[in-house]
Amino acid sequence: MSSSVLIIGASRGIGLEFVRQYRAAGDRVVATARSEDALAALSALGATALKLDVTDTASASGLAWQIDGHQFDRVVINAGVYGPRSEGLQTPTEADFDSVMHTNVLGPMRVLPQLADALAPDARIGLLSSRMGSIGLRTSSSGWLYRASKAAVNSVMKDAALALAGKASLCSFHPGWVRTDMGGSGADIDVQTSVAGMRTVLGALRADQSGSFFNYDGQPLAW
Ligand SMILES: NC(=O)c1ccc[n+]([C@@H]2O[C@H](COP(=O)([O-])OP(=O)(O)OC[C@H]3O[C@@H](n4cnc5c(N)ncnc54)[C@H](OP(=O)(O)O)[C@@H]3O)[C@@H](O)[C@H]2O)c1
After folding, report:
1. Pocket of ligand 1 (CB under 6 A)
2. Residues of 150-168 as b/e, b for ≥16 C-beta within 10 angstroms?
């Protein structure tokens, strides 16, 4: 049976691959991007393309009416930025701090409340976090602003799991170290492997697992 899917941040990399794979499986896909070129490419893949910039207050607050009438079985909140490639304790500029936190934390906090009326029964929602956000697994301080944003979005995911209990099951994902613009060409895995794994985990996510943090292959991760 085909599903109805929403992907937030689908112009390239992991988000675009989610669109490709769900479309290849015959699912109905609504996907968001910021540029006209990306919107056209999403339409060419057979997705319904919506313009959305999660850092723009007016744009982000318009999501609810754009998805009015939809009942999504799966939602993936993928939009993210890395920000400064710091190695030690370099204080970020205010502009970098705002950009990373607004995209990676405020973005999901804007999107999640607008989903409540657009969820099919037993919907599953995946948030793209990162193992770099795990405090328990941490052995390096590189990219501390990005790390802080992903630790924060894990907290956001957990609150959403509690608030949406009985309506939807949520989890955070580490997608692996993936060959994308963000991950770079020397990363461990290709985007197809990462997304195929996360689709499987999301499809199998049970209500009693809602609020968990998983690697792309389904291994649970420490906070
Ligand atoms: N690649 C990795 O190894 C890796 C590892 C751990 C976690 N992740 C996470 O996985 C997610 C996807 O990463 P990726 O590797 O695919 O990154 P990417 O290739 O850099 O793509 C980032 C995506 O986010 C979108 N985006 C950025 N800012 C946005 C905004 N303000 N509003 C809407 N969309 C926005 C981008 O759209 P534009 O084209 O418009 O900029 C693009 O579609 C991110 O959350 C990232 O933190 C990636």
Report:
1. 9, 11-15, 33-35, 38, 52-55, 78-81, 103, 128, 130, 174-175, 177-178, 180-183, 187
2. bbbbbebbbebbeebeebb
